[in-house]
Amino acid sequence: MNDWKNKLRASAARLMAGRYGPDQLNLAILMVSLAVTLIGTLTGLRLLVIAADALIVLAFFRMLSRNREARMAENRRYLTRTYKARKAAGEWLNRTKNRRQYHYYKCPKCHERLRVPRGVGNVTVTCRKCGEKFEKKA
Ligand SMILES: [Zn+2]
User: Fold this and answer.
1) This prediction's pTM
2) 132 alpha carbon to ligand 1 midpoint, in Å?
3) CA 87 / ligand 1 centre spacing (Å)
């Protein structure tokens, strides 16, 4: 009964043997493609939908590529260039998630982001980076 599943798994393994496979850049390309498809569909701009399809083709080309070195270099470049943006997005997500437990403040002197547990009342916040002290209500 599981015979066809095993056959499918084996043929998938054969197809992917020596191929590059998925990576973070491909995931990003697919997400952009999804967003562009959505915008293209909502605005009725056929050109955007075609561009989104081209991105999917690009993602498949990269995934099935046998030139692992080139694909790894592309992925590394993507990760390096988007590092700050990805880090900022991650931190924003984290702050949003913890909004109920913490107040977030920026140090008036060095702009370091600091957090104070909610519900502690009036506190003197000491910056962990520059030592600046300031009053806040949390
Ligand atoms: Zn500071």
Assistant:
1) 0.72
2) 5
3) 20
Distance, CA of 37 to CA of 48 (rounded, Å):
7
- pLDDT tens, residue by residue, 117-134: 999 999 999 999 999 999
Nearest to 115 by CA among 84, 87, 107: 107
Q: How many CB atoms lie within 10 A of CB 98?
A: 14
* pLDDT bucket at 1, cuts 50 / 70 / 90: low
**For residue 5, what pLDDT is reported?**
93
Cα torsion at 46, 50, 56, 59 (round to 10°)? -130
- What percentage of the chain carries pLDDT values higher than 90? 92
User: How many degrees, rounded to 5, is the angle at CA 114 between CA 111 and CA 118?
Assistant: 140
* Type of residue numbered 9: R
| Mean pLDDT across 52-76 | 97
Distance, in Å, from the CA atom of 84 to the CA atom of 63, rounded to the nearest integer, reads 25
> What spacing in Å lies between the alpha carbon of 136 and ligand 1's midpoint?
14
**Cβ pair 103, 138 in contact under 8 A:** yes
> So what's the pLDDT on residue 138?
78
Ligand 1 centroid distance, CA of 116 (Å): 14
